[in-house]
Amino acid sequence: MSNLNIEAKKRRSYDAIVIGSGMSGGWAAKELTGAGLRTLVLERGREVKHVEDYPTAMQQPWELPHRGQTPTALTKDNPVVSKCYAYGEATSQFFVKDAEHPYVQEKPFDWIRGYQTGGKSLLWARQTQRWSEFDFEGPARDGFAVDWPIRYSDLAPWYSYVERFAGISGNLDGLPQLPDGEFLPPHQLNCVEQHFSDAMKKAYAGARPMIIGRCAHITQPQPIHLEQGRSKCANRTLCERGCPLGGYFSANASTLPWAAKTGKMTLRPHSVVHSIIYDEQKQKAVGVRIIDANTKQMEEFYAKIIFLNASALNSNLVLLNSTSNRFPNGLGNDNGLLGKFIAFHNYRAGINAEYEGFLDKTTAGNRPNSGYIPRFRNVFKQETDFLRGYASGFGAYRGKYEDQSGWGADLKANLLNSKHNPVWNVGSHMMGETIPKESNYVALDKNQRDPWGIPQLRISVDYDQNDVAMTKDFFEQLTEMYEKAGFRNIRTYDSNRTPGLDIHEMGGARMGKDPKTSLLNGWNQLHHCKNVFVTDGACMTSTATQNPSLTYMALTARAADYAIKELKKRNL
Amino acid sequence: MERREALNRVALLLGGAFSGPTLLALERWEGKMPLQEADFSLSSLEQALLAELSEMIIPRTDTPGAKDAGVPAFIEMMLKDCYYPREQAVFTRGLQNLTKQGFLQKSAEQKKEILLQLQQDNKPLMKAYSEEMASRGNPIFVPDRPVLPFWRLLKELTLLGYFTSEQGIKASFEYHPTPGKFQATKLKPGQKFIVY
Asked: Where are the domains of chain B?
C-alpha cells in the first residue's frame, strides 16, 4: 500500500511548478523547462492555443454579428470587465465572466481578469519601457514604501534578455530616465507628433522629450522570432483578438509553445490553485493544492520549487490562503504585511486639442503604438509638492468629415466625398505613479467563498491626495506644453475612473532587504520560504510610471536563472 | 492606438455620424446603466416601413443600397441587442407616427414631404439634446443620459449598418484589412479614402 502511495506521489511530482501561464508565468515556464526541469504549469482557465483558438482574429467587420458593438446583455452580465477598453464583441472570449469569479469591493475596484492560458498577455497594451535607476531609487530617496533590494544594473541584462526574445520595437533615444533596450526598428512619429517632439525640445531644452513608444511588436523579425513561428507585425491593430501572425508578444505565441517544445512542460488547464503546501519538518514548500475546475475535486502536485505567477492580486490570494501551523496568516507572512501596500497607476486624466498645421498631410496605414512622454516631474530631484510623477501618451491624427444632411443618392454621394478636417486632433493620457500605502490592501473575506470554496478576495484600494495633486499638475503642465506647441482648443478631462481599470495593480508581497518590512528578497524568494518565488505584479515595491509587463518578464527570467543555480547547488 | 480613438476615427470616417449613445454602445463604457430585459421586436408592417426608410436614406444607385446590404434587419437586431428600452421606445414611437400618417401608401413626393418635416422637427430636438449634453458635462457616462430623437437614431444606424456591411464597405472604399504600414503621405486631389 505504501509503495502504491509512493508511486502515486511520484506521478504527481515535478521539478518545478509554475502557478499561472500568463505574462510572467510563461517566462517562468520557458526558463525552467529550458534548463531541463520537468515543469508543471497550472492554469485556472481553459487552454487557448495560438492561432487555432483565436476565433475572431480573421473576421471581417461584417462577420461580427453586431459589427463589433457589444450586446447589452453582455454589458449587463459583466459590469466590471466590460469597462475595459479592450473588451468587445470580438474579444469578450478572453475576459472572465464577472459573475463566475466574484470578489468583494470594500472600495470600488475594477478587477480586470483573463483566465486562460496566456492570461492577459493576449489583451495587453504592449507598451514596453524599461525602468530607470531613478525608478528603483525612488522609495529610498523619497522616503515611502521600502528600499528596492535591487537596482537598474541588476535588471538591465535581464531586460536585454527578454527584449531580444519577445521582440521590442523602439528608438535609441539615449534618455537616462528611460534606458534604451535591444530594439527592433521603431515605428514612425507622424508629422504633427514630430512637430510636438521638436517643439518640446526647443521649449524645455531636452527636459521633456516626446518619443515613439517602445512596444512588443515585431517590426523586423530576427531568427529568434522566426524560430518561434512568429512573423512581422502587419499593423492590423486587431491585437486583442489574438494575432495569427504572432506579430506581438503573448505567452500563447511565444513562451508557452517554446516551453512545450522542450518536452519538459506539462500544462494543466482548469486548475484553480487553492494553496501552496508547506512542510513543517522540511521547512519549505513541497507542492500545490488545486481544485479541478471541472470536477471540483482537490488534488495535490509536488515540486522542489514553486513559481507564483497568478497575477498580482491572485498571487496575494494564494499566499494568504496558504496557511499552516508555521504560517497561520499566510505563507511567509510573519510581519503581517502580506496583501498590504497595493498600488496601481493613475490613468484618470486626459487632454486633447487641435492643431492647424500640416494641412496638406495625413497618414496611411495603421500603427499599433503611439508617442510617449517619459516622466519629467521629480526625476532627478524633488521639485513639486507631490511625490513622483507621470508619464503620458501622445498621439495626433487627421480626421475626416462629410456633408451628412438629408438622405438619398445625394447623401450617399456626399458621404463618400469626405474632406479632411481643417485641423489635426491631438491627445494625451496620464500614467501616474501611485504611492503604496498600508491602507491600500487586499485580504481574504471571512464569509464569502468563490464557486471552488476558496475565500473571496476583499479589495480596498483608493486614490489619495498625492494622486489628486499630481492629476492637477498633469493638467497644468500638459496644457502649458500643448500651448508651447501651438495647439488650440485645449480641453482637459478627469474620468474619475475607479482604480483597477488601469490593469496595473501591483504589490502586496513586495520585495525588500528586510524580512521585517517585506515579503520577498532581492531574488523574488519569500524571505521565510526560500523555494517559493513570486515574480508577477505582487512583488512590486513601487510602481514607477512604466507599463509593468516588461519588468515582470525581466524579474521572472532573472529569478528563474537564480532558482536553477540554487537548485544545482542544492540550496533549495 | 486606443480602442476609443479607433472608434472615434470610425465615427469620423462616417462623417461623425455617431452620437454619444451609439459610441456608448460601441464602447460599453461604464456599464452603469440600469437595464431591463429587452423584449423588443417590430411587426411585419414596421419592418416594411423600416426597410423603406433605410432604403430612402441609402438607396441603390450604381452601388448597393441599404436593403441590398441587409440594413433593415441589422437595425432591428441592433436595437434589440445593443440599445436600452428608452431608446427602443423612441424608435418604435417614431415608426408608429409614420404609420399613422400612412407613410407607405404615400406617393414618392409625399414621402419626401414627410421626411423633410421629420428632418425639420429633428433640428430642435437635436439642439435640445446637444444642449443637455453640454450642460451636464459628460452625460453619455451616466444612466439617465439624454435620448436621441428618432430621425437621428434611424439615420446613424442606417449608416453604421451600411458602412460596416461587406457590400457597403467594398463598394465605397479601398478596403485594406492588413495595411502592413504606417507612414506619412501627401494628399492627392480627389483621392479615394482607404479604410483599415
From this structure: 3-195
